[in-house]
Amino acid sequence: MEDTAGTVKIETIKQALGAVVLEGQDRLNAAVDHVYASDLMSDVLAFGKPDSILLTGLATRQAIISAHMAEFKGVVLIRGKRPKDGAEQFARDNQLVLMTTEMDMYDACVRIAAEEGMAVTHAAAAEPESSGEDILFSNNFTIEGSDFAKAGMVSTEVKSILKKIGFDPKLVRRVAISTYEGEMNVVMHAKRAAVRLQVTPKVIEIVIDDEGKGIPDVEQAMQEGFTTATEEMRAMGFGSGMGLPNIKRNSDDLEVTSEVGLGTTLRIRFFI
Amino acid sequence: MTTKDVIEKIGLRCLSNFEHREVEGVFVSDMLSDVMAGAKSGNLWVTVQTHKSIVPAANLVDVSAIIITSGKKVPQETIDLANQHDIAVLSTDLPSFELVGKLYGLGLVSS
Amino acid sequence: MSECRHRWEMANIQFGFVVFEKCSHCNNLRTYFSLDDTWDEYREGDCLWSIVENAQTFRFDLKCRECNHLETFQDLMGLLYCTSCLPDCEVEVVRKRYEAEKTWVLVAFGFLPQARTRPIEERKLDILSEYFNQRRDTKRSRIKIISFNLISDLSRCRGEFIHDVGMLSQEPEERKHLL
After folding, report:
1. Which chains touch B (3 or more CB pairs under 8 A)?
2. Contact criterion met (CB < 8 Å) for A243 and C170
3. Which CATH code of 3.40.50.10260, 3.30.70.20, 3.40.1390.20, 1.25.40.10 fits the domain covering B3-105?
4. ipTM surpasses 0.95
5. How far from chain centre, in Å, is Cα A132?
6. Which pLDDT tens digit goes with each residue over A128-139?
7. In this structure, what is the dihedral angle of CA atoms B102, B104, B109, B111, given to the nearest 10 degrees?
8. Does domain A8-120 have CATH number 3.30.70.100?
9. What residue of B is the nearest CA neighbor of A36?
10. Segments making up each domain of chain A, as ranges
């Protein structure tokens, strides 16, 4: 198996897995280029490629949101799992195919790999690409801390706005992933946040301004992986990466300002 | 087939000290709850998780080895804990999906 | 009772957090299970409860696949593994003794203050041990699940819950000392 992007129809995958379609029956003719097998949504956001299909044992709405942010075409739940917390509704609203198979991850991977032309997903961040239109746009949102039911809604909205404006899907995807990582940080670690999306002729800018615990050492929080963090920082829930490295990877410019006890502001910019 | 055969045939890195043992089947998951619910004794457990929680989880279900994919860096504390419990921690740069193809090629079946 | 020699499998898995809260007035410690990672403070009579820690975990029941009997574990919030943080802790003493016999020890964690007067039943702990032992080669090693009541000083315990990293929170969080 090599990473030569082949394509396979979702219908073929469905049949190979004996899967039951829960959402998107009308989109089974769509083709996918890659398979991504993971239960770790931070990995899906960081390394998943557009037009993939996700095989996962995580049946929550967050799994579907992550697949959507990463521009996947569909999600297959393994081991007969059924979607939870409105995952189905989210798939329906965002035109994702959602299926479930009784197979476990190993068998599902083997069966799909046996289908001709299927490529294997490798870890690689999306290539930045610039394009855009000459317009000006601004919109404000709020994120409530600990509101898991609504987690992902702001980034979903940002994504749909930018898509409607007509930006390059790759650029939209980078903005969506970065916003989602930022949004999840707020939901998990802060009380609330004000979010501003602003589009100028040259730049898309997302500012997430939260009221929260703040980050004691921003530089350290920016480093990959939790092993680099000090124990105190990990105890505070920071330095665990917090998705910041992934935001940095996906954006053209990231500015983090933080005051312990007050909050953190992320200014994320994408050059068009 | 033993852990030794799998390591040699696929070219896996050994990160911990352990005794080789018989391998039976493969379980692929990044969810510890799934592993604890579904993996069987002697399974190879394929995952991208590296947190030290994987060691007690692997121990609970008696897997023959943990194979960490996608070249994830494994924290020293995970390896220390694995050494303490005689748990095999192996690693590869291949992503899970691709490793599955190779394991299948060795004739290993699912759990 | 049926004659069935139960073959257990996990059921009703629920992901969430063990919330530790402490009252600054009476200095008592309570624990409860929450689906969300909340950090609320509230008053209850003279008590002011504030959360000192949220530890990610999952809880579950066991079901027999032969006779469908469901054994619920409502008193269980998750399984904790000892990190040998306190050499004089009862868990550490028990753990060392069992490990000498190739038996790995895990701690069943429950609700405080309830468990102080009504500990997790011994019978339930044995069923948990049985579940894990059924699926392993017990000639090599065994599993023993013990009660969290054996933890000598909970406020200094740095045991870790077995949890799904990257599910509820995106990154693992290290447990800290409860002050």
Report:
1. A, C
2. yes
3. 3.40.1390.20
4. no
5. 22
6. 333 334 456 788
7. 40
8. no
9. B97
10. 8-120, 137-271
